[in-house]
Design goal:
Length: 482
């Protein structure tokens, strides 16, 4: 816990001054994560991990409700297995960490520390699947993975990170596509309704798709500095991995066929997304649905507050906890003002102040973190009032984030305008694109912006590509991205 310090909150660099510095300050001061002795790896501290656990629960419930089950596969993958799918190897090779020694001896075959688990899971599925009756396989795993990163950033890009990875096998291409899109919807639901972070669902370009996939779909969010964040991906693997790993089955018509696969994942990066979507100059602003504490009770009093105020505060704490509210009572010997700043910095949605006068009136002063509004409320029925207020805050945060995205999304019709917008106010830029990878690379070189995705259901544009004469094939959402 940080030491008492009058300037506690001002130690966070203002967001408008230096967004990146602000983010790192918030991560450190709110005790979400810390640097580790291993470069590029982070320690997730209890407050940060509590946020991840709530995100995990929201995802896990939905993953299971759609018929999936959890399992666990090993951390180590024999190198020969990773090498089986050519495109996959090429995509991951630069980021792979190897184990070459074990038990004091050099290993006969070096082991890969999983960067993702298609190779080992595909190998197992080849043993498990014989007939169409064995399909679909709908397995998810919660795990850590390692991708050797040159430049790291807490939560957003670390060498080791936590995630879930779903791996499914189906009889038909249509079923695999349906699964891929079902998961994309599931991810979008969690982001919008749990994290209050609006996302754009769409298909990735060829150059941005997952190595070895037929098609990759993503959800893209817009951070407070106008940069996009890829918040999750869902891949239709086609039969690529089934062919590489020989996952075959006897079909209903007795022919032997390869399964159709999908894989999909979201990571601890979502925690970073929440910080960057909602945070302000005072620190974190937590959406109630994933706030480790939804309410903090701060007793206010003079010398003998432990005798006069604390007993009533404890009763209210117990009432709120019994009503299913995640609540904490701050009974440390610090000034109330210091406690206010500290919990504001940690983004607790509601603060309940209870002083001697409040107790006389049988009321409590309730302060909102998101709007900073304060209101005196009767103690009778307080749990219900606070619960409905939390619902209101959750909805308000999503609405504000949506409005921010709208204000930072622009449709352009010429390349000059395209470049101008990206130089000025950052955000999403919508423009027609010809589908050429060269064109995409040139746009990136000119502006640093990449195609985030091509939204599902968007009308096919008529006319030319934003950068050249080629006929446009899709409407793409461009942005500078994390
Ligand atoms: Zn083009």
């Amino acid at each position: 816990m940080a030491k008492n310090n009058g300037n506690f909150v001002t130690e966070i660099t203002p967001r408008s001054q230096d967004f990146s510095r602000w983010y790192l300050d918030v991560v450190r001061r709110a005790e979400l994560a810390d640097y580790s002795p291993v470069k590029g790896c982070m320690v997730i501290r209890p407050y940060g991990y509590a946020i991840w656990e709530l995100i995990q629960q929201a995802l896990d419930t939905r993953i299971k409700a759609t018929g999936h089950v959890n399992a666990y596969f090993p951390l180590f993958i024999p190198n020969s297995l990773l090498m089986k799918e050519a495109e996959h190897v090429e995509g991951f090779a630069p980021q792979v960490a190897y184990v070459t020694h074990g038990g004091g001896e050099e290993l006969e075959e070096k082991l890969v520390v999983r960067p993702t688990s298609e190779a080992i899971i595909g190998t197992m599925y080849a043993n498990w699947v014989q007939s169409w009756r064995d399909l679909p396989i709908l397995i998810n795993q919660w795990a850590n993975v390692v991708r050797w990163e040159k430049k790291t950033y807490p939560f957003l890009r670390t060498t080791e990170f936590l995630w879930q990875e779903g791996h499914t096998a189906h009889e038909t291409e249509e079923q695999a596509e349906e699964e891929t899109l079902k998961i994309l919807d599931l991810y979008a639901d969690v982001c919008e309704n749990v994290l209050a972070m609006p996302v754009l669902k769409g298909q990735k370009s060829e150059s941005e798709k997952f190595a070895g996939a037929l098609r990759t779909y993503s959800i893209e969010a817009l951070m407070g500095d106008g940069r996009a964040l890829q918040a999750g991906t869902s891949h239709n693997l086609g039969q690529n991995f089934a062919k590489a790993f020989d996952i075959t089955f006897q079909a209903r018509d007795k022919t032997v066929q390869h399964v159709w696969g999908t894989s999909w994942g979201v990571t601890t990066r979502l925690v970073g997304g929440v910080i960057m979507t909602h945070g302000d100059d005072s620190g974190l602003v937590m959406p109630p649905n994933i706030a480790p504490y939804q309410v903090v009770i701060v007793p206010i009093g003079r010398e003998n507050w432990r005798e006069t105020v604390l007993p009533r505060a404890k009763e209210i704490h117990a009432e709120l906890a019994a009503a299913g509210v995640r609540v904490t009572l701050d009974e440390r010997d610090e000034r109330p003002g210091w406690k206010f700043s500290e919990w504001e910095m940690r983004g607790v949605p509601l603060r309940v102040e209870i002083g001697p006068k409040d107790i006389e009136k049988s009321a409590a002063l309730v302060a909102r973190r998101d709007t900073r509004q304060k209101e005196s409320m009767p103690m009778a029925g307080l749990p219900d009032r606070l619960k409905s207020l939390l619902t209101e805050i959750q909805a308000g945060m999503l609405a504000r984030a949506k409005q921010f995205r709208e204000e930072h999304t622009q449709r352009v019709s010429s390349y000059d305008e395209f470049k101008q917008v990206l130089e000025g106010r950052p955000g999403f830029v919508i423009a027609p694109w010809c589908g050429s990878a060269d064109c995409e690379a040139q746009i990136k070189a000119d502006t640093q912006a990449t195609i985030r995705n091509m939204p599902l259901g968007a009308a096919k544009p008529t006319g030319a590509c934003i950068r050249g004469d080629g006929a446009a094939v899709a409407e793409a959402w461009f942005a500078k991205a994390y």
